[in-house]
């Protein structure tokens, strides 16, 4: 039986409530929200085969030294960063990533984390801005999920500068370990942006709603959903999100812009008593 949108959403959230959380399965349920007829168990055989292919190609080393060989092995099996421009939503839908062997860094990281979990290799996600990274707990370097390159602090500063400019400093929070909910929220933000850029506002709205459910949202998350509501010509939803963004924002320029947008919206109909 095909899962409904609501059932897929609840299954995704339910995976994150498990102990330990079933992060990769949750990501597959995100794909099920967008892919009619897809169910996560359809990927079971692919994942088992990939696990076997990886395990036979790993060197005989202690498990805490196997993270980089794991990432190199995944890359050697054809899993690479998606360099198609403009990037399409399938770069962040995990069933499509498995099918095409192409994905965003976060998508490749989620796959690597799942393989590491199955093979008992220590590995965690790192919520680095603009390019998701991985790390062995306690290590002095990060790992690029796209091939396994080691990144030391100087490399991370260079990566940050390439994406946001040299004026942006590298902060300790950039190296923070990402929780399963934070990873799924980031995946949802990526999909929200990709669906919006391809003018699929109904799909983008699903992602925007999921962002708000997974972890505490930012003002930018409410602004993003307000813009989707604006394109869908839903002023009530737009007003709701702009008001919430205004409550969360501490940027005076953003607050001024939000206030102006709110003033330009039609007033909601008054209730009759």
Automatic annotation (TrEMBL):
Pfam families the UniProt entry points to: TPR_9 (PF13371), Transglut_core2 (PF13369)
Top-level taxonomic group: Bacteria
Family named by the database record: Belongs to the UPF0162 family.
Protein SirB1 N-terminal domain sequence ranges: 67-188
Annotated protein name in UniProt: Tetratricopeptide repeat protein
